[in-house]
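Re: [help] complex structure
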Amino acid sequence: MFFDYLRLAVINLTHRKLRSILTMIGIFIGIAAVVALISLGQGLQNAITAQFQQLGTNKIIIMSSAGSITSPVAGSIVAHPLTKHDLDVVRRTRGVDNAGGVLVKSGEVKSKDEGKNTFIYGYPLDESKKLFEENIGLSLKEGRKIKAGDRYGVLVGRYIADGFFKHKVRVGESIEILGKSFEIVGIMNSQGNRMDDSAIYLNIETVRELFNDPEIISMIIVQVQLGSKPSEVAERIEKKMRTDRNLEKGQEDFAVQTTEQLLSSFNTIFSIVQALIIGIAAISLLVGGIGIMNTMYTSVLERTKEIGIMKAIGARNRDILFIFLIESGLLGLVGGAIGAGIGVGIGMAVSYGAEKALGSSLLVAAFPPELIIGALAFSFLIGTLSGVLPARQAAKLRPVEALRYE
Amino acid sequence: MAKLVSDVIIGLKDVKKSYWMGDIEVPALRGVSLTIKRAEFVSIMGPSGSGKSTLMNMIGSLDVPTDGKVFLDGVDISSLGESELAQVRGKTIGFVFQKFNLITSMNAVENVCLPLIFLEVSEGERIERAVKVLEQVGLGHRLEHKPTELSGGEQQRVALARALVVEPEVLLADEPTGNLDSKTGHEIMEVLSELNEEGKTIVIVTHEKDIAKYAERKVMIKDGSIVKGG
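Output below.
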């Protein structure tokens, strides 16, 4: 029975092709937008979660409060930056297994007379060397790492070696940083995003000399001792730094966060963004639904006589109701399917574009099955709901009056 | 007695029907009683505004009377719910309309299959029956054509096939020749006569004497009352 109704609905919709397509556009724009945006958001979230997982959950990150989680560089230019002294304070805190300072600067790098600005990372060679290497996910494509005593040897990101300058850069070549000459000792593998791949790594003490700032640190990474709770250790660090800086609780000019806290604040931001996207999509789908309702009302009016005929030859009210409901549901579902297809296409195109233009693998659209299934189910639901009133109107038509309608 | 009851396929007992135009009651039928027996060929005649369309709606149980009773195959239709009535109507009566009333988006076979869908007949059987009836009315070569691709006479044959496919007790035709030229009209009437000879009950509503003469019994209606043949 259902398939017979379905066939009737398909016959009707294809008979009014243009109107069906126009009606479906209302749905598929909304669905395409929501699928594209959520898939990209989901991809970004997956990538960031993966980076945090690489970092591990037993880490604590300390930054100057002006430094946001997305820009460690900003942390080094505020009035009260982190210093070597803070690192000592942190290292002396109970539960801290290891702590290292990360220094990030930006400056001009020159190779064969071509100068460009990029990020310069201070590479610690003390006990926190391993922690730093873990943190940046160091893996070498060629050459070697920086060793203690390497004052003028640098490691370069994958993109610096191939793409950053007009020419390729090789191990053993010299490179000029802020006017001083250095030797490239190693090239790193790609880390999946252009910002990291465009960075240059050199001895942290050399960076301090270059920038003439012997104490500064952009960010402190803490490895928590096995068996200690990161959140408790973070609280202890915060308290100790507060005392050290003579600050009251609540006045901190620095931020201590465990990787879990960072991840959860990221996730909160994503949830808010996602809720906004869904809200906008809901409005556009509401408009699409009203479009379907409008089309169905027109259709009921146009087919009043047809409804009368069908009733005369034995159609019950519910037969008419189902035929119209299936029609409107189908408008929603097909519109949703086209929209989901377009959304997937947009998501993939943006991922591809981001990869090409920014060298970033952060923006790789993810299409969890529940997104697609949800989008289809929702569009079918919208179609069906929009059809309820027109379909009831059609079902209630009295055969005599419907037959008399011209 | 039992035999007599089963002989009657449609019975109207003192049926009154009024329409309201604003606050004014317009009586269309003023107490009509009529029995139609199986295998009868009845024509209902009357000038326009006489109430013959209303009478036909009552006979076809497309509408319910304001007062009085309508029996369809022995069942009082006021005792049936909407969906039961639709089913009984679908099984018992085949309608043929003046303007053919085919569904324009469907081809001949699909149109003829339609009533069988509502009777929940399986697809295979539907098509088999539809093709058979279309061949019977001489349209075996027009199965896949849409109404717009068919002549008036052919469209009325499709409509006839659609009415016949449910094997109804009664074929109820409202001005079946009204939109046809006289030659085609008479061809359709010949088909109806043949069906009557095979035992089908046929009721036609017409204002053409020429057409009414095919019937063995003529009912005349005027001003909402039967004046002859009731």
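Chain A touches chain B through 23 residues (CB under 8 Å).
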